[in-house]
Design brief:
The complex is a heterodimer.
Chain A (H helix, E strand, L loop, with lengths): L2 H21 L18 H7 L1 E6 L22 H5 L12 E7 L5 E6 L2 H32 L6 H9 L6 H11 L6 H9 L16 H25 L4 H9 L4 H12 L1 H16 L3 H6 L11 H11 L3 H29 L1
Antiparallel strand pairs in A: 1-3, 2-3
Helix pairs in contact in A: 1-14, 4-8, 4-11, 8-11, 9-10, 11-14, 13-14
Chain B lengths: L2 H31 L4 H7 L15 H9 L2 H32 L5 H10 L5 H13 L3 E3 L2 E3 L7 H4 L6 H12 L3 H9 L4 H9 L4 H17 L3 H6 L8 H4 L10 H21 L1 H10 L5
Antiparallel strand pairs in B: 1-2
Helix pairs in contact in B: 3-14, 4-8, 4-11, 8-11, 9-10, 11-15
Classes of the chains: A mainly alpha, B mainly alpha.
Chain lengths: 344, 289
Amino acid sequence: MALPACLLVFTFLILPFFMAFGLSLTNQRLVSPNPTEFVGLDNFKKMLGVSFLIIEPEMDEAGHIKLDNEGNPIYPRVRNFTRNQEDFPQFYKKREWFQLGLQDGKVLVVLSQDVVFLKALANTMLFALVVCPVQAGLALFLALLINQPLRGINIFRTIYFAPVVISMVVVSMLWRFIYDGQNGLLNTLMQMFSFGLFEPIDWLGNTSTALPAIMAMSVWQGVGFHMVIWLSGLQTIPLSHYEVARIEGATRWQTFRYVTWPSLRNTAILVMVIITMQAFTLYPQIQVMTRGGPLDSTQSLVFQAVIRGYEKQDISGGSAISVILFLLVLSISLFQRYLTREKN
Amino acid sequence: MPAHKLLGMALRYLLLIWIAMIFIFPIVFMVISSLKPDLQLLSDSSSLRAFLPVGDISPTNYLSAFDRAPILLFIFNSVLITGITIVFSLFLCSLAAFSFVFLSWRGQGVIFAIILATFIVPFETIAVPLLLIVNNLPWIGLEGIKNSWINSYHVQIIPFIADALTIFLFVQYFRDLPKDLIEASRIDGATWFQVYRRVIMPLSGPIIATAAILKFLMMYNNQLLWPIMVVQEESYRPVMLGLQYFFQLNTQWGEIMAYLTIITIPVLIFYLLLQKAFIASIASTGIKG
């Protein structure tokens, strides 16, 4: 009786999962005239490999550092290294990921063959790192607010949860309008509350604001989901515990710190894990709002996996990203296991 | 009630209402804007008029949205795909759960553990190889034999029928059912399938509702990544892909808002009617911790 479901899980979940591992070690394309070859870890080396280049300011004959018109030192162009196969084969055809100023005016340049992937990886981690605590914290705050015995409190619970049932695709479209640089609602509201002091920003068109804008929207959409999970955790705490705290004369903060919070431990771990998993699979927001731009500042792992695996028909490249994504998620859930075990 | 308590109460409600506005304003904006012509929509959004149904209010955007894209077809597709997936999912997953809980067979524990393990595999990580699989699977349908699943309804249905969460929810629920009920009907000579159909399922109303709602949210709302990959033909597209039509040639924001309203409001109404069940089903995903 379990056969049909097990067969489906096997064919459409487990089989592709192992295929992802296999394919990531090949050069498979969706349609290709060349036979598929086993290439080992080449895909991963290409994506994860970085090399370091230290450049020093240019000197004139007298040994002084050359300065440009604004008084800044002049550095040799990174291009001189990456286009010069004979002298610097290790840097050939690589692109600059980022620069780091060292002492004595030296600059460390991090080069990679696949800068877009590394940016996607960094953005995805950053997204998870910011969204998880913020969303979990806000959700807990809302759950505590909703858990009060007030008249009509269910109406508020219904409203706070409403965005959860709306598709992220729809939400992303709506917020594109809210974030618009010219007629966007957010700029309008900000100007209104700051009495015109606020300068309008093109939230999604700016490398420094695009990712934070997407983070804020994602929290807006998902916070109700986790509020409900916190709420069900809160409701397992026996009222007698609060009663004791009240009799002992505990303040509101003490009650939270010593009664509520310890009982929420498992719920907390669960909420964090669900949010992390959702955050790592950041996709519809990017697809609908920015397609990775501006200047790759909102690339994400899943978006890159789709671009490569589907749009560029590079099955092996897409699979390799999937494998990396899975390893990230796996390490998070192992971490969860570890945290829950510690207590027992 | 003393004055300071009254004030405290008022402050609490003020906070609750203020937060409620944050959650509600994009939705109100969407519905109101869908009724305005583009010029007014854009000029209104620089003031609070954006949230008020004032000025030139008409259903024009809805009419032109229907002209621009085959909306009814997309809605039909989404409902069909979601509906069939839910029905098969509830049936096959509950059947599997029944077998895991009430029958004993070799390898049961291992297979259940493997299914549970797939829980941490996000769909996004298997989408690319899955594309390769469905691209090479044969299908026998009304139009004869095809050698690929691309561009069809079933490619959007079959891979999503069985999932770890649904099986797990049923297993959890079945474990709490009284065992003697089943033994009694086995003694009366009922087959296992009869026990499943006549005894277990009639008792499973709440968990069926929970599983159906979760599946609905997962299916209807998330039909973006997979359809982008496997559906190129218009006739099989779900509603989320329909959005693309509104970005070809002169983009009309009013029409987009109308389309978003059309595909969202039914879900919101559904939610308002069944909100207890919706919230309970999300809360139940938290039990597994």
